[in-house]
From TrEMBL, chain A:
It comes from Sesamum indicum (Oriental sesame). Belongs to the bZIP family. Residues 143-353 form the DOG1 domain. Residues 72-114 form the BZIP domain. SMART domains: BRLZ. Pfam families: bZIP_1 (PF00170), DOG1 (PF14144). Transmembrane segments: none annotated. GO terms for molecular function: DNA-binding transcription factor activity; sequence-specific DNA binding. Residues 93-120 form a coiled coil. This is TGACG-sequence-specific DNA-binding protein TGA-1A isoform X4. Its main location: nucleus. Gene3D superfamilies: 1.20.5.170. Keywords: Activator, Coiled coil, DNA-binding, Nucleus, Transcription, Transcription regulation. GO terms for cellular component: nucleus.
Automatic annotation (TrEMBL), chain B:
Residues 13-75 form the Glutaredoxin domain. GO terms for cellular component: cytoplasm. The keyword Oxidoreductase does not apply. Belongs to the glutaredoxin family. CC-type subfamily. NCBIfam families: GlrX-like_plant. PROSITE patterns: GLUTAREDOXIN_2. Keywords: Cytoplasm, Redox-active center. It is found in: Cytoplasm. This is Monothiol glutaredoxin-S9. It comes from Sesamum indicum.
């Protein structure tokens, strides 16, 4: 051990340097140690020594008298070890407290981000650890813009749903109702345009569905809802239908399904090709950047696929509106809007009421 | 471009494609599902690939692949094919070729 003089700095809590006071300080920091082996080792030493010093508890003077007969350097060594251990313990405590402080700051930051995101209309989980904040929103300006715009899109959607509800319950004429239908359709088409721009920023983000709520994600297909599902959701709410309409809708459903299947198969092939590109020549790193570059190019195809899927959604909506009367189309749009609203509400309820494990 | 015109006129349904293009594959699957077997011409295996691409773009194909020709006429790329199919107009276009493909 080093010279006792440099380490003989009485702590604030100690008046006079005495081994017994040192041990009291140890006890306080026992729970905070981050290097158990060392503590145990030193405590073992202290335990050995405590047996010695306990004999001298009768009175300080007795203890020192007894120790005067032992080799002085042994005592000094013990005292030095005590101080060293205490010093290290203090440092560990300081580090731990610093860690807590940092976590506190980080927690405040996260809560602020969450608050901001909620105000922008995003549907995020109630608890921070139920984190749907897995997006790169804060670092990618294109995506940050998209999220903001999507938040506004949802608000506008909710407004349109309630307007449509009121319109259908009033005795509004077909001409006026048509306006509602057209603005409703345009609203969906606006979303597809927004998505196309976002896809160029970060197609993975778009395809992950992180910008949508959990229940909507469950039904996800290439960056959005399944057009064929759409028809199935709407059909019961469009009655009464004429025979021709029923036939047309049936044919539309079949064509839609076929188009979806074709795109799904194309996606599978793309998965395969990208996986093969990434997995090719894994060993031998002279090709590393070439491989990454090749995989990168393939990812461009993803952007086209998302665009194609959105195109299918748009075409399906347009075909439905061509087959239906204005009033039927209005009911259909309302049903569709409420369907998505329900999915969003379900997600929101789900995440703020975590189910207890049985 | 002559090569394209020739190919299109000789084959009822022609898809100009690239072997790596997955949208081309999707369109191919759609036609198969509808019971026809178009000729798939992979331009990336053609030495004149770049010229063919430019020609397809000039003809109005946004892809440039897939470029779908039916009865010698350019129908378009994936967008156009999907729109036609959803509106019910694709099947009438390919019906003449359904029987023929089976005979092959």
């Amino acid at each position: 051990m080093n010279s006792a003089s440099t380490q003989f700095v009485p702590s604030r809590r100690m008046g006079i340097h005495e081994p017994i006071h040192q041990m009291a300080m140890w006890g306080d920091f026992k729970g905070l140690d981050t290097s158990p082996p060392m503590i145990l080792e030193v405590e073992a030493k202290l335990d050995n020594q405590s047996e010695d010093t306990s004999h001298g508890i009768d009175g300080p003077s007795n203890k020192y008298d007894q120790e005067a007969s032992k080799p002085a350097d042994k005592v000094l060594r013990r005292l030095a070890q005590n101080r060293e251990a205490a010093r290290k313990s203090r440092l560990r405590k300081k580090a731990y407290v610093q860690q807590l402080e940092n976590s506190k700051v980080r927690l405040i930051q996260l809560e602020q981000e969450l608050d901001r995101a909620r105000r922008q209309g995003l549907h995020v989980g109630g608890a921070l650890d139920n984190s749907q904040l897995g997006y790169s929103g804060t670092t990618n300006p294109g995506i940050a813009t998209f999220e903001m715009e999507y938040g506004r899109w949802v608000e506008e959607q909710n407004r349109q749903i309630s307007d449509l509800k009121n319109a259908l319950h009033s005795d509004i004429g077909d001409v006026e109702l048509r306006l509602f239908v057209e603005s409703g359709m345009r609203h969906y088409f606006d979303l597809f345009t927004m998505k196309a721009t976002a896809a160029r920023s970060d197609v993975f983000y778009l395809m992950s569905g992180m910008w949508k709520t959990a229940a909507e994600r469950f039904f996800f297909w290439i960056g959005g809802f399944r057009p064929s599902e759409l028809l199935k959701v709407l059909l019961p709410h469009l009655e009464p239908l004429s025979e021709q309409q029923r036939l047309d809708l049936c044919n539309l459903g079949q064509s839609c399904q076929q188009a979806e299947d074709a795109l799904s198969q194309g996606m599978e092939k793309l998965h395969q090709i990208i996986a093969e590109t990434i997995a090719a020549r894994l060993l031998g790193d002279e090709n590393y950047y070439q491989q990454i570059g090749a995989a990168y190019e393939k990812l461009d195809a993803l952007v086209r696929f998302v665009g194609q899927a959105d195109h299918l959604r748009q075409e399906t909506l347009q075909q439905i509106s061509r087959i239906l009367t204005t009033r039927q189309a209005a009911r259909g749009l309302l049903a569709l809007g409420m369907y998505f609203q329900r999915l969003r509400d379900l997600s929101s309820h789900w995440s703020s009421h975590p189910r207890e494990s049985t | 471009m002559e090569k394209i015109v020739k190919l299109a006129s000789e084959n009822g349904i022609l898809i100009m494609s690239k072997s790596s293009c997955c949208l081309c594959y999707a369109v191919q699957m759609l036609f198969q599902d509808l019971g026809v077997h178009p000729l798939i011409y992979e331009i990336d295996h053609d030495p004149e690939e770049k010229e063919i691409e430019k020609a397809l773009v000039r003809m109005g194909c946004s892809g440039p692949v897939p470029a779908v020709f039916i009865g010698g006429k350019l129908v378009g790329s994936t967008n156009e094919v999907m729109s036609l199919h959803l509106s019910g107009s694709l099947i009438p276009l390919i019906t003449p070729y359904q029987a023929l493909s089976n005979v092959k």
